[in-house]
């Protein structure tokens, strides 16, 4: 794990701890990479509740209560699904803040309008939800690493 990710995760931890907040992750394309990054930080039990790795559409629906109709309408890689994943993670945990990632890390999986590297993010706190859609370059590993970095950077902005 890169030093940048470790430092970002430590910054997220400090920000959460200062505000007395617990974090939950809901990850698809990152396969738990965000949760791994934050749990690398000593003392993360004070601000990290749990993580959901919902790689399949069925797990998104069953574990995070993402409506199957939403997945069918917008696709699993969409801001709508990312928002629903984050809200579902909050509803199924003891956390106050959630981050979600869903995307196409590649090398396959591209669909019209969603090339390899497309990732959607969700950050939620109560009824407040922010989403973003980005397209990252590089191979599968690079896309996943950039996604973890952006998820953590987004958490810092969202918490403040």
From TrEMBL:
Residues 7-158 form the CinA C-terminal domain. InterPro entries: CinA-like_C, CinA_C. Pfam families: CinA. NCBIfam families: PncC_domain. This is CinA family protein. It comes from Pseudoduganella plicata.
